[in-house]
Write a structure and sequence with these properties.
By secondary structure, the chain is α+β, with helices and mostly antiparallel strands. The protein folds into 2 domains: 203 residues, 2-Layer Sandwich (Cytochrome Bc1 Complex, Chain A, domain 1), CATH 3.30.830.10; 181 residues, Cytochrome Bc1 Complex, Chain A, domain 1 (2-Layer Sandwich). Helix content is 45%, strand content 19%. It is built from 15 helices and 11 strands. A hairpin with a 4-residue loop joins strand 9 and strand 10. The termini are far apart.
Length: 417
Amino acid sequence: MRDYAIHTLKNGIRVVHNRETTTKIVHCGIMLDIGSRDETQANQGIAHFWEHMAFKGTRKRKAFHILNRLESLGGELNAFTDKEKILFFASLRDSYFERAVELLTDITFDSIFPEGQIERERNVIMEEMAMYFDDPEDSLQDEFDRVVFAGHPLGMNILGREKTIKSFRRIDFQRFIKEHLDTRKIIFSSVGNVEMEEVVRLAEKYMGHIPRMTSRKVRKGFTGYKPKEVVLQRTVKQARCAIGRTAYKLSDEKRGPFYMLTNILGGPGMNSRLNMVLREKRGYVYSIAAQFVPFTDTGLFVISFGTEPSQMVKSISLVELELRKLREEPLGKKQLAAAKEQMMGQIAMGEENNVSFMMMMARNLLDQGRITTLDELFSQVKDTSAEDLMTLANEIFKENKFSYLMMEPRAGHGHSQ
């Protein structure tokens, strides 16, 4: 069991720390409760662009000094943007912890968005978009978000659109930050062999002076999901498919058991039902996965795979058959016990990883106001019955509620059979 301590600064920023005495490396990050779903059509892609620009210059540092500050010590500085969060994070030897806290604070709160760097980074993001559209696996997921969350910010691409990326100026970043930054929704999270007193001292020293900020922005909830079928022609060799729909939100108590159901169906284990049926028995796919991603007000369930165009229809019917089985046949005692052991093993493995634990603490605090312990997660798994799973399967796996997205090779790009 990992223990942790929480401290709140006067400005509302929360500090959470897990002391790990068996490591020389400290992982820390500043997580903001801001993501691509907080954008509009007009400024689509600005959160991700801001994440890039944070490394391009602050009041006291140029881009080179930011990148060199931790890298020269063998450390790492990184960031990511998703639908609901931005995280700036660092990993390095614990003797340089203060350097990481100071630098992360600097790039998060003191970026100056130099115009010349904005121009340069525009091109970098355009390259990232081109690379991304070349990868059918990535673009399939995003295209599917657009199908499910049509006309809503959750359905917009995190990278933005060419038109919006070309339009951003310094003032746009400053305005977006001013409108969305809320110190009560900022977490500094760390894991490493550092005393909590020292973590608090450094957080007070570098973040204590940041003025309290509040945002009046309210996230637009998603309602009115309608199932759709979409076929896209792309320059791909393999046909790809995503099948799914909306699912449970973060605060729903069904979320834990539904993770388990998703895991049985198409989790990372090679023994998942979909993998056994489509890959092991028939060799139709190289990989197939089911995923459940909960958000603050809704969730997304999706199954994705790639196959030869001639096997697409057969593959889809096999997927539908597995979904039907979960709706109609309860798991046997042995199957249920095995599914629970597998789920608990995966959760425990995830908690072993210090970087993901650092992120998990920050995310939990922002989304739920508390950190879920390993024991709580285990007892949730243990308390789930075969009937519970069947009820969830009947709620979410209704065939007439699914959306389908097929990506087919353009004429002349498929494999000949």
